[in-house]
Amino acid sequence: MAKISIIITTVLTILLPIFLNLKNEQFVNSFIAIYLINWFLCLITIGVTTIVRLKSLNSIDFKSRIINFTKYFIGYFLFPSLFFIIFDYDSFDIVRIIAISFGMSFGTNFFDLLFKKTKNKNLF
Description:
The chain crosses the membrane at residues 31-54, 66-87, 93-115. The protein has 2 domains: 1-55; 58-124, no CATH class. Helix 1 runs antiparallel to helix 2 (25-55) and helix 3 packs antiparallel against helix 4 (94-110). The relative contact order is 0.11. It is an all-alpha fold. The longest helix has 31 residues, at 25-55. It is built from 4 helices and no strands.
């Protein structure tokens, strides 16, 4: 359901300014705000679903995912950091590198949990 909602709001966000010719900018701005809120809620849903399904994993799979998450996070953090240090860029943003490293390692290790069928009916 969330996937359909994202697709519909994306299409409407692209088409509304074209059809309205930006005559009603307040409406378009409100719709874009709703679109961004929809994306934010979708990200929260992904995070909550992943955490809930992570609790249902056996201990061996859980430990291996956490270890792989840590390895990928360190790798994704070190590669751009060393790249910025070696080539001496002025815009070394540590918060941005940490955020990208966390997102990529989280997605790499836990994204399949969103589509995994659970045996417990009480979970999402």
